[in-house]
Amino acid sequence: MTPFAGHPIVVGIVPGQPELVALTAAAWASALGVGLYFGYADRARVTVEEFPDGTVRHAEVDPDSVDDSWQDRQDAIEETLRRTLADSVVPWYFRYLAGRPDRALTHLARAVDASAFVVGAHDPGVSGRWHDVVDGSIAARLSHHQHRPVLVVPLSVVDWHSRAPWQ
Questions:
Q1: Tally of structural domains, the chain
Q2: Does residue 159 lie in a domain region?
Q3: Rounded CA gap, 61 and 67, in Å?
Q4: Torsion sign over Cα 78, 20, 93, 67
Q5: What is the mean pLDDT of residues 120-145?
Q6: Residue 119 belongs to what domain range?
Q7: Order of strands, edge to edge, in the sheet holding 9-12?
Q8: For residue 165, is it within any domain?
Q9: Is residue 109 in a domain?
Q10: How sure is the predictor about 144, in pLDDT bands with cuts at 50, 70 and 90?
Q11: pLDDT tens digits, residue range 51-76?
Q12: Alpha-carbon Rg of the chain, whole angstroms?
């Protein structure tokens, strides 16, 4: 286990995700006195080379394709993080990764010697459950295939005291 003190937290993010994930990670990092490494893994790209700082050189899955839209996505994610964390004093970095998110985030955590992960929960609706069945939960994959703890941020409130819609 990597000690929490002095070791950053890796945060798995996706475009359009609620700000709550980044804000929760920033609150934990502030309490621990550590920094954050945000990582987005683009499934439409493959990792060509991994670097010691957690960055990667990546390419299209289809070698005959030329699609530079990833640069716009990277810029948009960084701008969203800048706005969201504008009031935070926690140092943070963003890494645009490629391939399977659990593997990409694990590489990033190893590279920066992270102590833990923070990820957002899936949408509890039908699309979220379908995604878990088809692709698997990133949080579950992380918790089963590496040694760092995983904090999952709930993205919707479930009131267990209210009646179910079918009642």
A1: 1
A2: no
A3: 10
A4: negative
A5: 63
A6: 15-153
A7: 92-98, 36-42, 9-12, 116-120, 150-153
A8: no
A9: yes
A10: confident
A11: 999 999 998 887 777 777 889 999 99
A12: 17
